[in-house]
Amino acid sequence: MTHRPWERAGTWLLRALTYAMAAGVVYVLGEIVVRGLPVIDLEFLTAAPREGGLAGGIFPAIVGTLWLVVGTALVSLPLGMGAAIYFSEYARDSRWSRWLRTGVITLAGIPSIVFGLFGLGLFVIFLGFGASVLAGSLTLAFMILPVIIVASEEALRTVPQAYREASLALGATRWQTIRHAVLPYALPGMLTGSILGIGRAAGETAPILFTVAAFYLPDLPSSVFDQVMALPYHLFILATQHPDPAARPMQYGTALVLVALVLGVNAVAIVARARFRRRYRS
Amino acid sequence: MSRRTDGGPRRRLAEGGIRALLLVLASTATLVVVLIFLFLAREGLPALERLSPEQLLSRRWQPTSESAPSFGLLPLLAGSGLVTALATLIALPFGVGGAVYLASFARAREREILKPVIELVAAVPSVVLGFFGIVTVGPALKQLLGLQTSLNALTGACVLAFMAIPTILTIAEDALRAVPRAHREAALALGASPWQASWSVVVPAALPGIGAAVMLGIGRVIGETMAVMMCTGNAAIITCDPTESVRTMTATIAAEMGEVVYGGLHYRVLFLIGLLLLSITLVVNLLAQRWVRASVGGRGS
Questions:
Q1: Phi-psi label, residue B233: left if phi above 0, alpha if psi -120 to 50, beta otherwise
Q2: Which value does ipTM take for this structure?
Q3: Same domain, yes or no, for A24 and A95?
Q4: Does residue A17 share a domain with residue A60?
Q5: Does B283 touch chain A (CB under 8 A)?
Q6: Under an 8 A CB cutoff, do B257 and A146 touch?
Q7: Which of A73, A206, B124, B155 could form a cystine bridge with A113, CB 3.0-4.6 A?
Q8: pLDDT under 50 in chain B at which residues?
Q9: Interface residue of B19, B21, B22, B287 to substitute, partner A, most A CBs within 10 Å
Q10: Does residue A50 fall inside a structural domain?
């Protein structure tokens, strides 16, 4: 193989670009871990913020984000998994089902701030939920719906066609086939894929700005009609209201908890998926 | 109870019911898209009755001015345009170059490590990257270029590019790897160098997919809110100078919606901006899907 000098230089340039990007990712995460870790202690994780967030902890924000994550999961999982079952097991290549699929792809491309406006217009004002966990969870759930549908469909596709055919040949109806021959094998994959989407919801700020997030609310929520603090919004406020370096530790600490939460959720999903895969292979 | 293989009428009713229920669930996404359009239009379009096209196309965005509130959208469009163009320019070499490197030149092990690391960005919330832009990228650029302020269009564009690179890289790399190996091997057998085989055979064959990747990256950049609001400085001015502070459409909505009177003119104009933003991203994504389809069609032939 002949390499001309400038081709070699070009290859090195491409390599440099790729490694630079990877190094940037490592640097960003490394900075957040190194600067955030010293801040994290029991008080930071279990106390309410004091002095406008410059002291105390972030406990109400952690709890608020957990409420939102659970609420989002409760709405989006049944919707998304049900939709995926329809697309994978029932839908034929008709004009109607192509329309529905286009809807899913379109929804995936809508900017998060537009979801925020939609949530404000529909849930907060029109349906009268006010700024609340309910309004925020519904907004986030619709935003991640496409992720859950796509991930679940992928899991359903990995179930061999022969399982379905064997079940149908024995006289089982379509739903019996799905219930007993398809879902038991697809469900772990559907769930883990969906968890990845829910992890994303935990880190979103724009959709919760007008639908649920409160800046300072030391009391924990008691119902889904309450406003909550949320980690991403708390970080946003800390980062933009306190430009002075004295506020840096609290900012890095909050950033680390948020990143750890999102990546932690993802890691759980990935480990779980690997375990399920191994179990089914044997 | 029944020996018929399709079960009794009750069974059949249940089957139909389940099917109908799942169809309803599958329709939710489409329904939400329609609802989003309806609500944005319902809240935003009335602004057009109260503002003339000249007022909306003026160069002054001062919605809270007490003496003469002005709702000119041009500075916001210009801000979004400038930041998006800059971010795309920065992201292109990394995204496409990285995809070509990983698909054609990297060793398998190298690729297995680099790709997941780069894709990790997708799991980092945009507010965290925005924070990082404020504390690290902004000050670094300010010192490096001797700027007045650390929060400007360039800082925002750098952070946005960082977010868009994994999108572009992943999809473009998939498109490059979907080109049959035989193409590349034939070129190599004819005496082409690996570099020539990549750039004159594999890349052209994957071009629609790469185009789709770039469009999806741009779509993500236009719609990004938090990072851009935190890093660009938010001055509503019309400028082509990347070192000036600008204000995008997304940041305007996010920053101002919290302080408006529901149903007031300012509220309606913010929804109108949302409607505009939605339309722009839909067009960009439609173009991307076209190209995806073109690249999938090309693969079959």
A1: left
A2: 0.90
A3: no
A4: no
A5: no
A6: no
A7: A206
A8: 1-4, 298-301
A9: B22
A10: no
* Beta carbons of B39 and A118 less than 8 Å apart: yes
Write down the pTM of the prediction: 0.91
Q: Does A70 reside within a domain?
A: yes
User: Which pLDDT score, from 0 to 100, does residue A3 have?
Assistant: 63
**Distance between A233 CA and the closest CA of chain B, angstroms:** 8
Q: Which amino acid is at B104?
A: S
Domain B56-300: CATH superfamily is: MetI-like (1.10.3720.10)
> Which residue range is the domain that position A249 belongs to?
56-281
Nearest Cα residue in chain A from B92: A17
**Which residue of B21, B24, B25 is the best one to mutate when testing the A interface, meaning the one whose CB has the most A CBs within 10 A?**
B25
Does some domain include residue A47?
no
Can you spell out the DSSP letters for chain B? ----TT--HHHHHHHHHHHHHHHHHHHHHHHHHHHHHHHHHHHHTHHHHHS-HHHHTSS-EETT-SSS-EE--HHHHHHHHHHHHHHHHHHHHHHHHHHHIIIIIS-HHHHHHHHHHHHGGGGS-HHHHHHHIIIIIHHHHHHHHT-S-SSSHHHHHHHHHHHHHHHHHHHHHHHHHHS-HHHHHHHHHTT--HHHHIIIIIHHHHHHHHHHHHHHHHHHHHH--HHHHHHSB--------TTS-B--HHHHHHHHGGGSPTTSHHHHHHHHHHHHHHHHHHHHHHHHHHHHHHHHHHHH-
Closest chain A C-alpha to B261 CA, distance in angstroms: 12
| Interface contact B126, partner A, CB < 8 A | yes
CB pairs under 8 A between A and B: 261
Answer yes or no: do A86 and B26 touch at CB < 8 A: yes
Q: How many Å apart are CA B32 and CA B277, to the nearest integer?
A: 17
Nearest alpha-carbon partner for A113 in B206, B170, B229, B168 = B229
At residue A231, the pLDDT reads 94
For residues A263 and A198, membership in a common domain is answered with yes
The number of domains in chain A is: 2
Asked if A164 and A76 sit in the same domain, the reply is yes
Q: φ and ψ at A221, to 5 degrees?
A: -65, 145
Asked if residue A158 belongs to a domain, the reply is yes
Query: A259 or B1: which carries more pLDDT confidence?
Result: A259
Contact (CB, 8 A) for B128 and A258:
yes
Q: Does one domain contain both A130 and A157?
A: yes
- Chain A contact present for B225, CB below 8 A: yes
Tokens 């192509």 label which residue? A98
Q: 3-class DSSP state for residue A166?
A: helix
Q: Taking a contact as any Cβ pair under 8 Å apart, which residues of chain B between 53 and 92 contact chain A? A: none
Give the chain B residue whose CA is nearest to the CA of A199. B123
**CATH number for the domain that contains residue A176:** 1.10.3720.10
Residues A205 and A140 in one domain: yes
Digit-coded pLDDT (tens) for A77-101: 999 999 999 999 998 888 888 899 9
Neighbours of B298 (CB within 10 A): 16
CA distance B64 to chain A (A): 19
